[in-house]
Amino acid sequence: MYSLAGQFNLSIEQYRRAMDLDPNMYQPHCLLALTYMHVGRPEEAIAEAQKAYELSGCNARMAGALAWAYGLARRQGESRALLKQLITQCRKTYVPASAMMWAYFGLGDIDQAFKWLEKGFDERDLIIVCQINDPLLRMHGHPRYQGLLRKMNLEH
User: Fold this and answer.
1) DSSP assignment string, the chain
2) What is the pTM of this model?
3) What are the domain boundaries of the chain?
C-alpha cells in the first residue's frame, strides 16, 4: 500500500520484513522489484525480479516482471529472450496478459503492450486494473489510454 501512496522507502521496509518472515515467498520479491523500478534502482530491481522468478518456479507472470526490469535497465537482449520464452509458452498453455504486457512495456513496444493490456482487461486480470495508472508503464499519453479508461469506467 505504501507504493501506491508514493512512499517507496516505507514500501521497501515492508517488503523486506515480509521476506524475513518467509524468505521463500516470491511475491514480496516481485513487489520490491517493482518498487526499485519506481525509484530508479534498475540493478536491484533485476536482482529481486530474478529471485521472484526463481522462487515462483519460473512462472509466466514473474518472467514478464523480469523482462520488464531488464527492459527498463536497457538490457534488451535479456528482455527479448524472456519475451520469446513467453510467446512460446503462450502457444502451449495460458499465460496471464499482464506478463506479456510487462514484457512489451519493458521493451518499449507500446502498441503490443496495449494489445495485451486490453486482453487482460477482458480476462479480468487483476494486475491490469491495479497498474492502469502506473507511471512506469508510460501509457498516459497514448491515444488508446483514454479509451481503455472509459472501458474500465475509470475515466476522470
Assistant:
1) -TTTTT-HHHHHHHHHHHHHH-TT-SHHHHHHHHHHHHTT-HHHHHHHHHHHHHHTTS-HHHHHHHHHHHHHTT-HHHHHHHHHHHHHHHTTS---HHHHHHHHHHHT-HHHHHHHHHHHHHHT-HHHHHHTT-GGG--TTSHHHHHHHHHTT---
2) 0.84
3) 8-151
Length of the chain as a residue count: 156
**Cα separation, 152 vs 15, whole angstroms:** 30
Q: Which CATH class is domain 8-151?
A: mainly alpha
pLDDT tens digits for range 49-107: 999 999 999 999 999 999 999 999 999 999 999 999 999 999 999 999 999 999 998 99
